Amino acid sequence: MELAKSRLDRLMESLTILSNVDLRAIGEAELRRLVWEETRHEVRRNSMLLNANQIWHRGRVCDPANPFESLADLMYPRNGSGRVGRAHMVGEQPVLYASRNAATVMAEIGGTSPIHIQLIATRVKPGLVCKCDVVGDFRQVNNSGLSLCGHQGSVDTISKINQDNPEEYCCSLMFDSFVALRFERRVDTTNEHEFRLTSLLASVLMARGRACALMYPSVQFGGGMNIAVPSAAFDDLFEVVWSTVVRAHPIGFGHWIPEVIRTSESIDSEGRIHWSENRSMSPKDFVFKSIAAGYRHRD
């Protein structure tokens, strides 16, 4: 007599199926069906509520003499993208990607010589919150006892699941580890098909968890964190608080030092950036302010 399969057995079968999909060959409709069916397991996810105290950064290479004057040039593409991305699909609503600090932005843009980058700082509007699914947090807490969010509450919640229901914890850990490993894959023009799976997983996780955003570890910058926010949620919940132009100097081992060139005086209701005549912070202040912004309360 064949024994009934455990929850973990059934989950691992599904994750194996998804791991073995030929993303170059499978049709879009079949892939969507497969992802939705094979992720219908009861697993716990960790999430956090973003608020106005967390600052997120986004950057774009620019001409320092003629920086972008409109936020429309620095956010998500209004008409969407013609290429699939880590957390967005072709033909679906655009997604804004941002990083927890400027150091991660510079590493994500990369390069081997100094470049000029125009940064924007964005946050959830004061008084609102944005529920954000966190990819890789079960794995991080399991492996290190620390949360990717930097919150002890996340550690306590995940640890309690392990104490109360070890089977549920193990299933949640396996599912989270599978998703995190897929999101961590380095992708270039030769293997962009990898994004077909991660973009669908992002959609599934946000839909099932009723989340407005997805947080995941940076591929380019160890310890860095990124978020992906669909355009509708970004327009409703987020605001841009400042912009600055920096000359980013690579110093080795994936790190950069920013030299502040220009900072914004204000951003008007039409999204036009008005520049200050003077720097509002020194390069040293900018480094520490940018690195700290994602981790502590701001005045």
Describe this protein's structure.
By secondary structure, the chain is of the alpha+beta class. The protein contains 9 helices and 10 strands. A 5-stranded mixed beta sheet has the order 1-5-6-7-3, with helices on both faces. β6 and β7 form a beta hairpin. α1 runs parallel beside α6. The N and C termini lie far apart (about 65 Å). The C terminus is likely disordered.
* Rg estimate, integer Å: 20 Å
Order of strands across the main sheet: 1-5-6-7-3
Give the amount of beta strand, in percent: 15-25%
- Largest sheet at a glance? 5 strands, mixed
What oligomeric state do the depicted chains represent?
A: single chain
Q: What is the N-to-C order of secondary-structure elements (H for helix, E for strand)? A: HHEEEHEEHHHHEEHEEEH
Mean pLDDT: 88
The strand count comes to 10
Which helices and strands appear, and what pairs or packs with what?
Elements: H1 7-19, H2 28-38, E1 47-50, E2 56-61, E3 95-99, H3 102-109, E4 115-124, E5 130-134, H4 137-144, H5 152-164, H6 166-183, H7 194-209, E6 213-217, E7 225-230, H8 231-237, E8 238-252, E9 255-267, E10 273-275, H9 283-293
Parallel strand pairs: 5-6
Antiparallel strand pairs: 1-5, 2-4, 3-7, 4-8, 6-7, 8-9, 9-10
Helix pairs in contact: 1-6, 2-7, 4-5, 4-6, 5-6
